[in-house]
């Protein structure tokens, strides 16, 4: 723990570059963060019907997310209990059961072993053979307003506690309309050669980069620069390492999509949303903002891009991107959102290319043998904490601020120093 604590100096806002390249740090992150936290695995709209399933990752562990005949969503390892073969090679589909390609063991939608070839041979020659012990290893599952989360830690707090007051903010995204949200069909998977924490902390609180990094992209795409954002009416909030930075301009992020119809849609709905969430949160719905739910689920409210940054070693990620919209939004608007996300924050998006370049270069340079001895600067807004009559969690004034990044690393350090043995159901 002492060695870990030396990496993160939150008092002065200094971070050791080792957290971005060291293999041992990375291995510990998989154990103590990704095998313990509640991780976003699916939107309920992706597994709406019995038999619907998809495959994704929890850390580097492949998992299947499947809805069974009773309507429950199950999450279990995508690795056979016999010899470990990958069970589902498909990334998405609808099945009654999953049959392993190697010897034909067959598992139900809840992961239970339901059939195997020549079962009688096992019964005769394998003492104590019990198929009930040989189901696929299951995770705990819980959902919040359409988002399904899972954890492999039996001792993890409830999802409600894990999210805490961040739920009040999540409702801006997930509950500004009575019909809730959905993912538009399809996801995009892409790779970046960067450490997973760079994009996560960027979405948690790096408003500061936008006017600089994205200015030329915005000029090319929209014919106008990003411009410095209004600092006086803007905030960073954090809860349990989850961060959200925002202004209260209501439509700013939507304007980045360059679609006037979306801006009009948000303006038309403002009163209705205010009646539902209150005036202040209604101003957040489409505002210039970004957010990250610890550790690796990010989104841009009002701009509909929604993503997870799956770690693939200290210097690589697999990025999954979706378009999240209100279910009741008109179809014509949904396709505008889709187009807008593709143009901005997707692998072909102008603004994603800006960010990816920075994160890859930051990851690569931090590993230099001399470079790695120099600390990084995370001290912006050290004294910006305020009390606010409405906002929940830790509130900081001005979104040009490193307070959410520091909160991210505070949570990171807390989990990394937690030495209890990993607890998971067998
Ligand atoms: Fe799956 Fe043998 S490895 S049935
Ligand atoms: Fe960016």
Write the topology of this structure.
Layout: H1 2-5, E1 8-9, E2 14-15, H2 23-34, E3 39-43, E4 52-58, E5 61-67, E6 73-77, E7 92-94, E8 98-99, E9 106-107, E10 113-115, H3 119-125, E11 140-144, E12 147-151, H4 159-163, H5 166-174, E13 181-183, E14 188-192, H6 197-205, H7 210-213, H8 215-222, E15 234-239, E16 242-247, H9 252-256, H10 260-277, H11 279-282, E17 289-293, E18 297-299, E19 305-311, E20 317-326, H12 331-343, H13 350-365, E21 376-377, E22 385-386, E23 394-397, H14 403-416
Antiparallel strand pairs: 1-2, 2-21, 3-12, 4-5, 4-7, 5-6, 8-9, 9-10, 11-12, 13-20, 14-20, 15-16, 15-23, 16-17, 17-18, 18-19, 19-20, 22-23
Helix pairs in contact: 6-14
The protein binds FE2/S2 (inorganic) cluster (FES) and fe (iii) ion.
FE2/S2 (inorganic) cluster binds next to loops.
């Amino acid at each position: 723990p002492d060695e870990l604590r030396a990496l993160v100096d939150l008092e002065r806002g200094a971070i050791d570059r080792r957290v971005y390249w060291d293999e041992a740090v990375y291995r510990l992150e998989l154990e103590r963060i990704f095998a313990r936290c509640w991780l976003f695995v699916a939107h309920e709209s992706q597994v709406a019907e019995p038999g619907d399933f998809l495959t994704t990752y929890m850390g580097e562990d492949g998992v299947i997310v499947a809805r069974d005949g009773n309507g429950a969503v199950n999450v279990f390892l995508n690795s056979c209990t016999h010899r470990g073969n990958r069970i589902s090679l498909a990334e998405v589909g609808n099945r009654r059961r999953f049959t392993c390609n190697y010897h034909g063991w067959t598992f139900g939608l809840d992961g239970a072993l339901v059939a195997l070839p020549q079962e009688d041979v096992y019964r005769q020659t394998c003492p104590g053979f019990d198929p009930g012990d040989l189901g696929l290893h299951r995770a705990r599952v819980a959902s919040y307003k359409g988002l399904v989360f899972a954890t492999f830690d039996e001792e993890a707090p409830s999802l409600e506690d894990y999210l805490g007051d961040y739920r009040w903010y999540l409702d801006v995204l997930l509950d500004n309309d009575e019909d809730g949200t959905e993912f538009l069909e399809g996801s995009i998977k892409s790779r970046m050669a960067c450490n997973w924490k760079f994009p996560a902390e960027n979405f948690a609180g790096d408003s500061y980069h936008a006017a600089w990094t994205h200015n030329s992209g915005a000029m090319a795409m929209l014919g106008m620069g990003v411009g410095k954002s209004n600092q006086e009416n803007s905030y960073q909030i954090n809860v349990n390492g989850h961060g959200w930075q925002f202004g209260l301009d209501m439509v700013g992020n939507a304007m980045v999509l360059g679609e006037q119809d979306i801006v009009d849609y948000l303006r038309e709905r403002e009163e209705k949303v205010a009646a539902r969430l209150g005036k202040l949160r209604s101003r957040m719905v489409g505002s210039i903002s970004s957010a990250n739910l610890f550790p690796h689920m990010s989104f841009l409210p009002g701009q509909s891009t929604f993503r997870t940054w799956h770690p693939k070693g200290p210097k690589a990620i697999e990025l999954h991107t979706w378009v999240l919209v209100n279910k009741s939004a008109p179809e014509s608007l949904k396709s505008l959102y889709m187009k807008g996300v593709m143009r901005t924050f997707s692998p072909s998006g102008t603004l994603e290319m800006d960010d990816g370049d920075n994160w890859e270069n930051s990851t690569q340079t931090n590993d230099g043998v001399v470079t790695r001895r120099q600390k990084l600067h995370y001290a912006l807004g050290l004294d910006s904490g305020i009390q606010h009559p409405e906002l929940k969690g830790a509130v900081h004034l001005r979104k040009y601020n490193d307070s959410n990044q520091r909160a991210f690393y505070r949570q990171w350090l807390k989990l990394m120093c937690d030495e209890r043995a990993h607890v998971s159901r067998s």
